[in-house]
Design goal:
Blueprint (H helix, E strand, L loop, with lengths): L1 H9 L1 H21 L19 E2 L19 E2 L6 E4 L5 E6 L6 E8 L4 E8 L5 E6 L12 E9 L10 E8 L4 H4 L8 H9 L3 H14 L4 H12 L14
Parallel strand pairs: 3-9
Antiparallel strand pairs: 1-9, 2-4, 4-7, 5-6, 5-8, 8-9
Helix pairs in contact: 1-2, 4-5, 5-6
């Protein structure tokens, strides 16, 4: 030990290099240990909610092996409602292998008035698709519930038994734990705080943004899996994010 100390005194650059190396090692190890767990706020979807998905996927050419997730699946807590602090949040849906090319996406107020409806292109490969609500759509009102739906267009036009999914959104005021960080770049710390305070849609959107910007970061992949598993979505926790 004394010999090493003398070496550092004779060569201060060596000491600096060791210090930098140590710091970088700490920066890398810490994120890989991070986990993101969603804590539901206790809210329930409106009683008229009929969430979930149509299971008849034959006309859409869904794959059938038992090892494959064959259902269109909304990324949402088991209560079928998620909170957001955003004026126009993003919605995420798992799309399996399908012959369908497009889907109808709608956003409605609780009294069934349409705020937005559009056709969206479906990914060529199975994975988690992000649907962004554009700036042209009126901002969600704080404290109000909105229902979104995504209906697969498997033939030339919509059919009564077309596979579909839906979920609810409620915009809330941000908790003081996250207010100071909302205007900063996405980070695991922000995502963890959002998840801990029950802000589902923004936790997911920020984590998806980070994963796309750092596709080879194992910490972000672990955080994504932990977040989905915390809301019983283990079956699609390994599904890739689609473009």
């Amino acid at each position: 030990m004394q010999k090493n100390n003398k070496s550092l005194l004779r060569n201060p650059l060596l000491g600096i290099a060791l210090l930098i190396s140590c710091c970088f090692e700490s920066m890398w190890i810490a994120p890989t240990m991070a986990g993101v767990t969603f804590k539901p706020p206790g809210a329930q979807a409106p009683k008229r909610s009929s969430g979930g998905a149509s299971r008849d996927g034959n006309q859409c050419g869904f794959t059938t092996p038992a090892t494959t997730n064959t259902s269109v699946t909304p990324l949402i807590p088991t209560t079928n409602i998620g909170f957001t602090v955003a004026e126009r949040p993003s919605i995420f849906v798992y799309i399996p292998t399908t012959t369908a090319k497009t889907a109808l996406f709608t956003l409605q107020t609780e009294d069934s008035k349409y705020s937005y409806r559009t056709n969206v292109s479906l990914p060529n490969k199975p994975g988690v698709m992000q649907v962004k609500i554009p700036a042209s759509v009126p901002a969600l009102k704080t404290g109000k519930n909105y229902k979104w739906s995504l209906v697969m267009i498997c033939t030339e036009e919509l059919e009564p038994d077309s596979p579909w999914v839906s979920g609810w959104i409620r915009r809330v005021e941000p908790n003081t734990k996250v207010t100071s960080q909302l205007n900063k770049p996405a980070s695991l710390d922000l995502i963890s705080r959002l998840a801990e305070t029950g802000i589902w849609y923004d936790s997911l959107a920020n984590l998806a943004q980070l994963r796309r910007s750092q596709p080879h970061n194992p910490a972000l992949n672990d955080a994504w899996q932990a977040l989905l598993k915390s809301v019983d979505l283990s079956a699609i926790a390994n599904a890739p994010l689609t473009n």
